[in-house]
Amino acid sequence: MSTKNKILDAAESLFADKGFNGTSLREITSLAEVNLAAVNYHFGSKKELIKAVMSRYMNELSPNLQASLLVICQQETKPTLHEVFSAFIEPLLSLNVFRENGTSNFLQLLGRGYTDSQGFLRWFLTTQYPEVITNFVTAVQRAYPELSAEDIFWRLHFTMGTVIFTMSSSDALMDIAKNDFEQDVDIADVIRKVIPFVASGVGAPLD
Amino acid sequence: MSTKNKILDAAESLFADKGFNGTSLREITSLAEVNLAAVNYHFGSKKELIKAVMSRYMNELSPNLQASLLVICQQETKPTLHEVFSAFIEPLLSLNVFRENGTSNFLQLLGRGYTDSQGFLRWFLTTQYPEVITNFVTAVQRAYPELSAEDIFWRLHFTMGTVIFTMSSSDALMDIAKNDFEQDVDIADVIRKVIPFVASGVGAPLD
DNA sequence: CGTTATTTAAAACGCTTGTTTAAACTGTCA
DNA sequence: TGACAGTTTAAACAAGCGTTTTAAATAACG
């Protein structure tokens, strides 16, 4: 495996675990078993490395998600919100075959990027991958046309909050659930649990 | 105002803005206009300062929230989930009279604590203020008895995710909403928008 | 008033951070 | 073989970090 990929892999799992700010280049290069200077040689800076880690996932996820949402948008019958959100399941879970622990790593990274580094990742996503968001909004609008643009805006951000926050602490939550309820849960179970929640939340009646 | 309080105030707003890891003691003492060494003199360490900032809020919020939830738990008629979550509104908003921007600062700090520093704040809250969680769970159980303990566990964490995540980026979100929809929103509006979402999410039917 | 305790001040501590430098090594092609 | 680009290496860099130390200033009290 190339030095570049060794760095990407190590950075990914450390970033997911401890955040971008909380991970040093020395930890990354030590886990990757490469020289410290290799990061700056191959990526230029830590910030560029973060972008590279995120891009690797987004480039894999984005087309799958686009296709999945397109089906919803183009089907004749009006979709339910549950169907809209379920469109995320397969593309997200397919990240697990893309890379080990891919689904949970990616969602954790997403969460880190939103809270670390003061919204630089929000800028990155909305400028680099705007079509994903557009298609998603369209799908929700088809499912719940009465919802105003403002309400869609807010409820989609609530949804992102739910998902991202849950995933960024999903390891801890799964441990607690295992101890307290003696039930084994994996990331797919968590996704299946969260979908009814957000679908119902977005579909809440307007008073 | 005492040195101690000047430090607490400065630390609070910086922590809320940039996270615990992202804020240095030098930034804090410089904003507070006190000497760098004062933090270690008055609080012992940065970690203890973080605890002190959080405790100041929790000691204010906790009794109000307890009282508000108690009303729900003890009323004769079965509460709706919307009522249960609405019990948070007044205690949370009253933090705004406790301190300027108190509500949003506190919720942002909560969010920081969950994602920064690998769950040390979760430990802090669950061990120092367990009654709040207990009462909340009881209230939800009264409102939706069919929900199993596992499902309550998961959906309450989804709820925390929604609220905390939303609030930790609420400043940015309010700005976007202002630009895109020309509507003025404050923290109270956001809370009023999020309540139907989480109430509906927690109340989602079990399939 | 004098003494003791508390609080501030400035400087330095040792350590970690991201980044850069310059030399050594590796493989490829003429 | 010898030159050359691409990589890797170890060492150093300046800057920032949390914390500690020293001494001076202030407050409290017998």
TrEMBL record, chains A, B:
Residue spans binding DNA: 24-43
Residue runs in coiled coils: none
InterPro entries per UniProt: DNA-bd_HTH_TetR-type_CS, Homeodomain-like_sf, HTH-type_TetR-like_transc_reg, HTH_TetR, PsrA_TetR_C, Tet_transcr_reg_TetR-rel_C_sf
Keywords: DNA-binding
Occurrences of domain HTH tetR-type (ranges): 1-61
Top-level taxonomic group: Bacteria
Gene3D superfamilies associated with the record: Tetracycline Repressor, domain 2 (1.10.357.10)
PANTHER family associated with the record: HTH-TYPE TRANSCRIPTIONAL REGULATOR RUTR (PTHR30055), TRANSCRIPTIONAL REGULATORY PROTEIN (PTHR30055:SF235)
Protein name: TetR family transcriptional regulator
Organism field: Thalassotalea castellviae
